[in-house]
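Minimal example, chain plus uridine-diphosphate-N-acetylglucosamine.
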Amino acid sequence: MPNVATISRGIYKPHLQIEGNCSLSGELKVSGAKNSALVLMIASLLTEEPLIINNVPNLTDIDGMVDILLAMGVKVKRNLDQINIKADNLHHVELPYELVHGLRASFFCIGPLLARLGKAKIPLPGGCRIGARPVIEHIRGLKALGAFVTVEHGLVSASLAGSNKRLKGAHIVFDCPSVGATETVLMAAALAEGTSTIENAAQEPEVQDLAKMLNQMGAKISGAGGPQIIIEGVKNLQGCNYKVIPDRIEAGTFLLAGAITHSKIKVAPVIPHHLSAVLQKLRDCGCTIQIEGEGIIIIPGEITGVDLTTQPFPGFPTDLQAPFMALLAIANGTSIVTEKIYENRMQHVAELQRMGASIRLQGNTAVIEGVPQLSAAPVVGGDLRSSAAMVLASLSAKGTSRVEGLNHLDRGYENLESKLNKVGANILRKGS
Ligand code: UD1
């Protein structure tokens, strides 16, 4: 029985106990993409018919989205990695701020709600640990489609303007290629009257996945994956049976687990071109990359430092910046990492420093002098991808580390420790 003193020292906080100096071998299985699955679940609001989504990862973010759909009267059934959704009785409620704030994708419901019900009210998601994360592009897009939108008391209210029964097709030019804004407008415009064009659209694979599923539901969308997307609005969408793409960020994290432990491993399934920028950086670091169908094999050599800057797709993804920095912390030579997407995504730097990394931080640029090995320490992941960086650093460090911040990790990595343990890691989940 823990006494008061041990509890107050946080001994029983959920954490991973990770043995360092580890060697991995074998194949790591990649789950379905979190960011795709979330938005595909939202797209189910666009039809009364049943929709089946396969390859949905078992994550707390997905649990949160299920709760949101249930709150709006949607029927949801889950069986392993399959979700059955039927939004025939869709009724809108004002989503509690805690749900929206904790799960940014929930704000994207505004597009389908407006298209299906003619009105929507959703609290502004607000900022989060990694940055301010505005939604002005989403709102500008919806206004262009003919919605009347107000923001008052932290609540975004959108309705069809005047006597309009449907949104109206429009030409929309985004100031920045926001993934969420592109997805919000894509869903709203799919049921609008007339043709819409999105310029400077986000080109991320998750946007392409959404467009592909919408087309399978009867939408008429072309150009997704490029900077210009054209959407010919239709009156109704149907149900469909769809499979989520593999998670490129989880796959990238696994490749980095191979690189940081100097272990040859295979990561599958993946869509290799979704990871082009990451694979290039791994090659530049001295890793050999072999692509075999839906699998990628990494054969790490001597790791040397590289410079990288995060960018919208097809550039280097911000979501892999922290995990990649863990690798650069033990590379030969100097690396410079510049974060261009989020203003506060360097929380892992202080934790890596606690493990012996030599990093100077100037604003959003980190200058990393590689050291031969990190040393184990108790560390805390401050956001989803920092937590993953801590796990990677711990796998290669000397000694046994303790990684807290599992509430973040569990949002985006399905069974991370059991997947890594299957290929040779020694990770114990404790205190939960
Ligand atoms: C999505 C992903 C997230 C990823 C991010 C960037 C989901 C659920 N999440 O988030 O994992 O890190 O893409 O690849 O899919 N911006 C504005 N105005 C806006 C909207 C965004 O200036 O109205 C800026 C943001 O501040 C940020 C950049 O655009 O600097 C990218 O944001 P965005 O693409 O919107 O990210 P999300 O869709 O929220």
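Residues 110 and 231 are 18 Å apart (CA to CA). The chain has two domains: 4-31+247-430, 34-243.
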